Amino acid sequence: MFHETRDAVIIDQDASVLEWEGVSLPQLRDRLKGRVITPADAGYDEARAVFYGGIDRRPLLIVRVADATDVSRVLSLARETGLELAVRSGGHSVAGHSVTDGGIVLDLSDMKGLHIDVDRRTAWAEAGLTAGEYTTAAGAHGLATGFGDTGSVGIGGITLGGGVGYLVRKHGLSIDDLLAADVVTADGQLLRVDAKRHPDLFWAIRGGGGNFGVATRFQYRLHELPTAVGGMLLLPATPDVIASFIAEAAAAPDELSTIANIMVAPPMPFMPAEYHGKMVMMAMLVYAGEVEAGERAVAPFRALASPLADMVRPMRYPEIYEPEDPSYHPVAAGRTLFMDALDRRVAETIVDHLQASSASMAVTQLRVLGGAMARVPAGATAFAHRGRRIMANVAALYERPEEAATHETWAGDLAATLAKGDSSVYVNFLGNEGEARVRDAYPGSTWDRLRAVKSRYDPTNLFRLNQNIPPASVEGPEQ
Ligand SMILES: Cc1cc2nc3c(=O)[nH]c(=O)nc-3n(C[C@H](O)[C@H](O)[C@H](O)COP(=O)(O)OP(=O)(O)OC[C@H]3O[C@@H](n4cnc5c(N)ncnc54)[C@H](O)[C@@H]3O)c2cc1C
Predict the structure, then answer these.
(1) Which of 187, 192, 379, 452 lies 20 to 30 Å (CA to CA) from residue 250?
(2) pLDDT of residue 84
(3) Which protein residues are within 6 Å of ligand 1, measured from CB?
(4) Hey, whose CA ends up nearest to atom 15 of ligand 1?
């Protein structure tokens, strides 16, 4: 028994696609080099799962594309059928944008080609690589490009939104090392995009997310990084320690980037038992440079309090990405914000809120910015929050869906208290907070510029399942 959803697609009662625009599923499989996965196929459930738990969407079709030609064909299917299109690289979208209910998932995760030019210190990397895969391969040559704090995040999503990680103060955002990209636009054309070719698009994809096309490959600058000093420093999180940590991180040399997670200590084996259940700061530190200078830069942090655990050590940079459990799919209520200062009083507020949370884990993450990231002019890329000093992420992890409202309220309250009326936001950590919030990711003239570029390259808003920037011709959110 068949039924039709739209003129162009015929699906059966199990929601399997049988025919598109007169093209049968076997014909479609023939036309694509990559893998087509439908609800009838083994591996469908695995293929539709994303990093975050609680997202249970059933696409009609998942296409694991093999190359830019496949991408172009999938885009034409999406155009012709009008079905919702999700674009996926590493599947870590905080807002769940990499999977659709009843639409098409264009999945780049099989595209993992990497060509490293050691002499020129550049790399062409296909968008299906994860940050960890790229970093390990580059690290084998003593080279690195900065991504985020988690190895399993895709280079596709993190790069297009900006990319804030362990090299942010030394080398800037991931986009600051982006030299070029291959992008398939909504009309199916493959464009080489760089400072000279399609400069408007090159500007827009450095922070504007997946709004402008499907990036199949990125060319990055690589930096020499034969040694680093890095790892986790676990400190008791009193308000004084938190405030002093932030002051030290801001005063540290650019080589040192930090990510401090403040939370109630879960029972972890490396932590003294008397600290389980107490407020701790789990800080990740990376000094991107020579070991001796790195040890000197880390010393003031070690002196803030008696560390509960100290795993900071000389390392090869890729070792900063710890092995991950692929079955970990947390459900979280999260908010992200920028701050310009954090004193003892603000630290106290954070501690109080964390203590009041009923979540199975509540955390406030603090990233001190500055350095190379801040030296790029705000108008040079679509990521324009260049002058912000601190990025804070607030999250409550929970298991029971009926508790969602409680944890959303908690996260919203703490974020509002810390943001003090400043709504600006980093797009890659933004959840589903409505259209107006996307505007907050793009301050000043950035928003209008992005909408103009969107009109040029995606006038019908084919790429709309994302933190959407509507084409200038379409009505956008109130300003
Ligand atoms: C555990 C975790 C840790 C994180 N840590 C950091 C961090 O340290 N620093 C940081 O900056 N961010 C961090 N992030 C946020 C992360 O950068 C974004 O979630 C990013 O979008 C994930 O990229 P992805 O390719 O894995 O995700 P996906 O879900 O595959 O993609 C997200 C969206 O990006 C777009 N997109 C992805 N690939 C392409 C492509 N090739 N072409 C066109 N559009 C594309 C699509 O709109 C897609 O919906 C983290 C997220 C998680 C879940």
Answers:
(1) 379
(2) 97
(3) 51, 87-94, 97-98, 108, 127, 148-150, 153-154, 156-158, 160-165, 209-210, 214-215, 428-429, 466
(4) 428
Which of 43-57, 65-79, 268-282 is predicted least confidently?
268-282
What is the per-residue pLDDT for 473?
A: 74
Q: How far is the CA of 293 from the centre of ligand 1 (A)?
A: 33
**Residue 178, Cβ neighbours under 10 Å: how many?**
23
pTM: 0.96
Rounded distance, CA 334 to CA 393, Å? 7
Q: CB under 8 Å to 177, separation ≥6 — which residues?
A: 145, 146, 171, 220, 221, 222, 223
- C-beta of residue 87 within 8 angstroms of C-beta of residue 214: yes
Q: Residues 113-138, buried b or exposed e (16+ Cβ, 10 A)?
A: eeebeeeebbbbbbbbbbbbbbbbbb
Pocket probe mutation, ligand 1, options 63, 89, 427, max atoms within 8 Å of Cβ: 89
As a 3-state breakdown, the chain gives helix, strand, coil percent values, each rounded to 5, of 30, 25, 45
- Residue 327, classed as helix, strand or coil, is coil
**What is the length of the chain?**
479
Mean per-residue pLDDT of the chain: 94
Distance CA 286, CA 289 (A): 9
**For a pocket test of ligand 1, which of 160, 286, 397 has the largest count of ligand atoms closer than 8 A to its C-beta?**
160
By the 8 A CB rule, do 101 and 57 touch? yes
| 95 Cα nearest atom in ligand 1 | 19
Indicate the pairing of strand 228-236 with strand 313-315. antiparallel
Q: Are strands 223-224 and 143-144 parallel, antiparallel or unpaired?
A: antiparallel
Run of H or E including 456: helix 446-457
- Res 160 pLDDT > 90: yes
- Compute the radius of gyration of the chain from its Cα atoms: 22
- 160 alpha carbon to ligand 1 midpoint, in Å? 8
The pLDDT value recorded for residue 188 is 97
CB of 211 closer than 8 Å to CB of 217: no
Considering only CA atoms, which of 465, 461, 443, 427 is closest in space to residue 209? 427
How far, in Å, from the CA of 11 to the mean position of ligand 1? 31
Instruction: For residues 143 and 160, give the distance between their C-alpha atoms in angstroms, rounded to a whole number.
Output: 21
Lowest mean pLDDT among 164-168, 222-226, 246-250, 471-475: 471-475
Protein residue whose Cα sits closest to atom 4 of ligand 1: 150
Per-residue pLDDT tens digits for 384-400: 999 999 999 999 999 99
Cα–Cα distances in angstroms (integers) from residue 47 to residues 12, 18, 105, in the given order: 20, 19, 10
Per DSSP, the three-state class of 118 is: coil
